[in-house]
Specification:
36% helix, 5 strands, alpha/beta, two-stranded parallel sheet
Amino acid sequence: MPNLLSIGVQTLAPFNIEKIFINAALGEECGTIELFLPHDSNIGWITAVKEKARTGKRINAKMESTKKHAEIYWLDLVKIDVEGFELFVLRPFLDLISAEYKPDFLVELGWGVSNPHWKEFILLANELQKRAIASMRQMAVKKVWT
């Protein structure tokens, strides 16, 4: 995790915008999470999805609540590349999306239909989309009447 953090900091350093880096895995709750490591040190293949692990190498990492950080920072853009753990990072946003809070998401989907959480993820994505559309309609009504 620290290696990923340092790469993100270096990559985005030239951009003069506010950036927030969280040195932890994000999920639905705080605690620890078991991460499975790739055999070739390719940091792009670290996963928390045991069914998709390629090796038996694993570490425990700190996990923090997505909702907690979203409520503190009211993130405008959420970039997620979590190799199959998308459902658990995104689901907390269901409680937060409203006419006042509509973050944008850039999600790299881990493994598509071979992701063991794919069906649940598609249901979640549809629900997030419905809520975003509903909040846009709510804003449009407010603009018409104010």
